[in-house]
Specification:
This protein has 93 residues and is mainly alpha-helical. The chain has one domain. It has helices spanning 2-26, 31-67, 69-78. The N and C termini lie far apart (100 Å).
Length: 93
């Protein structure tokens, strides 16, 4: 009788492990979900590094804007197409 109980427990444990692994590997909430979350995480980390570089470039522009008076004039002339009152503008087509 004791041997039957031992065999029953071992078979039950084996079935439990098989069912657990089946759900873990095959179900949509198992390994496939884990892999998709890892890919999402990698994409987010990449976006963070890109945005950190962009923030650093913008901070550099802000520092140049606050410290260099010629930078303001350069931006006004190049990006805003402004000129001083007596400047001659040459347009090269």
């Amino acid at each position: 009788m004791r041997l039957d109980k031992r065999i029953f427990l071992r078979v039950f444990l084996l079935l439990e492990v098989i069912v657990f692994l089946g759900f873990y590997v095959i179900s949509p909430n198992g390994l496939p979900l884990l892999y998709s979350k890892q890919e999402d995480n990698q994409n987010i980390v990449h976006q963070i590094t890109v945005l950190e570089k962009e923030v650093a470039a913008l901070e550099k522009d802000i520092d140049a804007w606050n410290s260099d008076p010629f930078y303001k004039e350069k931006i006004a002339r190049e990006q805003l197409h402004m000129m001083r009152p007596n400047d001659e503008v040459y347009v090269i087509v």
